[in-house]
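Q: Trace token order:
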Amino acid sequence: MKKQSRFTFTQQQRNGIVLLAALIVLVQLAYYFVDFQPEEYIPENKERLWAFQEEMDSLKQAALHARAPKIFPFNPNFISDHKGYTLGMSVEEIDRLHSFRKQNKFVNSAREFQKVTQVSDSLLASISQYFKFPEWVQQRNRRKAQQKKYQAI
């Protein structure tokens, strides 16, 4: 008994395979030799284009500043690493505050905060407006200020 191959093709099928292979080769050659890149467009009015680009850049910058994180009032005794970083503090300044807090001491004024953390005056001026101390600390600071006022008289 003679075995019959499963891969026998008719003349029409063989012609189709050869035609398909030739078509694949032609497409590959066309892809290799033909440049499909569009020609570079050179605008006639470059000054207007640059002005438009500068306006777009300035609008993007304004949008970035508008999306800056809003700072809410906070107690400076409980600044986390992330919060300190977003406020602009260096790692050393944050570490000084954390080591001060490990001694179970609290910062009760902006000046004391600067003394402990050694932040710059400009950074202190920008973030001290958001400091929120407990009410009893604020009352004590007011009393001290009044006593200094009376002593000066």
Remarks:
- Residues 8 and 14 are 9 Å apart (CA to CA).
- The chain has a mean pLDDT of 86.
- DSSP finds seven helices and no strands in the chain.
- The two ends are 129 Å apart (CA to CA).
